[in-house]
What does this fold into?
Amino acid sequence: MLTVLARTRARIPVIAAVLMAGALTLAACGSNSDSVATDDTASGSTATVMVTDAWIRTTDGTMTGIFGVISNTTDEDITINSASNTASSMTELHEMAMVDGEMVMQEKAGGVVLPAGQQVVLEPGADHIMAMGLLAPVVAGEEVEVTLTLSNGETVSFKAIGKESAAGDEDYHSDDKSSDDMMNHGDMS
Amino acid sequence: MSLTRRQLLGGAAVGLGGAVVGVGAGAAVASSAEDAPDSTTYGQQTVPFFGAHQSGIQTPAQAYAVFSAYDLGAEADLASVARMMRLLSDDAARLTQGVPALADLDEELALSPSRLTVTFGFGPRFFDIINRPEQRPSSCAQLPSFSIDALQDKWSGGDLLIQICGDDAMAVSHARRMLWKDTRAFAIKRWQQNGFLDARGSQQPGATPRNLMGQVDGTTNPRTDDDFDVTVWNQDPPSWFVGGTMLAIRRIAMNLETWDAVSRADRENSIGRRLANGSPLTGRDEFDALDLSAVDDRGLPVISDFAHVRRAHTGPQAPFLRRGYNYDLGTTAGGVTDAGHVFTAYAANLDTQFIPVQQTLADQDLLNVWTTPIGSAVFALPPGASAGGWVGEGLLG
It folds into this structure.
C-alpha cells in the first residue's frame, strides 16, 4: 500500500517551485519557509539549495520524520550527504524501498540526490529525514532546526515546525487494530 | 409577557399593500435554468488573510459559515497556545489563498477557496489559561442572563473560536477539518454551529440577507470603513487588542410552526418592516429611516410600540455588526422544525454597544414570541496578522 504514497510529483522543475514559493510567502510562519545557504557570494548569486514548507511529525516516541520541499537552483546535481537536527541525537536520510516484495523504510545509500534545477519533495511514504534518538517529545507547533550537509561542501539550515499527521501510518494502525481486536476477543471469552 | 400577542399587534392593517407589490417584483427577475452561467470563477476568488484586521468580519458575508468553539486542555499554557496559534495561522494563511496547508493530505480540496476566510477568537477563560488576565478586554465575559434565555451548554461558551466562512461548502469543510487536525493537540471541541445564507450569485451583490422567518435582516449594519472604525474595530487598551473586535454569538431557535400561523400583516408588524423589501412600515425603500412617531388614521403608531425595530432602535445605524447565518437541522422526531439563526454581534465593546440593546429586546420585543436564545458565547477577536506574523502574536508572542 505504501507504494501509493510515493508520488510521481517528487521532481518538479524549479520554475514551478519558484511560483509556488511566491504563493507561500503569504504563509504566517516565516520560520517554516526559512532557507539559508551558507556560501552566498558577494556577487549576488542565489542560494544553491532552498528548503520550504518544512515540518516534523509530532511524537512522544524515540524517532520521527522530517519533511519539506528542497529545491536545487543550480544546473548541477547536488547530493544531500547527511543531516542533523536539534531534537535528536542521530539523523539519517531514509527512503522507502521494495525489499523481498515488501515496502520498507531504510537508510538511503549514497544520500538524497537533488537533480539540477529540480525540486524534491520529502514526504511521508517517500524520501525523508529521520530524527532518531529524540531527546524529548516533539510537540505541535515546536520549531526544530535541521541542517543538511551537501556534496558541494555547503550546509543548509532550516526550521521544521512540529505538526501532527497520520500520513503513512496505515501499517502501524492496522497492527494496533489487530492487537485491539485480540484484546477484545479476550474480554469477550 | 403578560399581554397577548393579539393585543400587542396593535396597529395591524398597514403592511398588506407592500406584500402584494413584493410578489410581483420578485417574479420579474427569474430566468431560465438553461441559460449558461457567465463564468465559474468564484472558486478562485480569495480574501487576503493578512492585514490590520482579521478577515471574515468586514468581508461581505459568504454563503456558508462554520463556527467551531474549543476548550483548551488542562495542560495548556502561554507557550502551548502560542504554538497552536502559529500553526493555525499558517494553515489559514495558505488555505484562504487556495494553497494546501502544510502536510495537507487532501490538497485538491484546497484549490477552490471561494472567498474562504478564517477568523480566530479567544474566550474569557483564555486569558486566565495564559496567565494574563489583565490583558482581557473589558467586555470579554459571558453575557448576563436574560429572561428570554433558555441556554444549553452544548451551544455555549468556549476558549477558542474558529470562524470559517466561504462561498463553497467544500472549501469550508476542508478548512474546518484541516484546522481541527492542528487544534486537537491542544483543545477539544465544545460546539460547532453551521450556517448558510443565499448561494453566491443568487442575489445582487451586497443585498441584505434574510433569516428563516423571511425577514430582511441586517439593514442598519455598519458598511463603510469609517463605520467599522467607529463601531467594530476596538481602539482602546489593552494595546494588543487595538484593531480587534468583540463577538457575541447567540444561537436563536425559531418556532417556525407557530410563525406559520401568523398573518402576513402581523408578521410585518412584529418587526416593523415589510417582508417584501425590508422597508420600514413608515417608508418605501429598505434603507429609508424609521419614523417612530408616525401614526395611522386611527392615531395608532404605524410601527408598534413592541415591534422589533422600535425596541432595537438606537439611531440610524446599528451599534454593532450583525453577520449571522441561518441554520436548519431538519425536523425533530416530534415534528418540529429545528431551525433558526446563528446570531452574531461584532462590536468594539459589548458592554456599551450590544448588551443594552439585548436587554431592551429581552424586556419586550414581539419577535420573542417566536424566537428563543439557546446558546451564547463571547470571544475577543484579535486584530489581523501582518505578513509573516500570526493571529494573537501581540498577546502571545
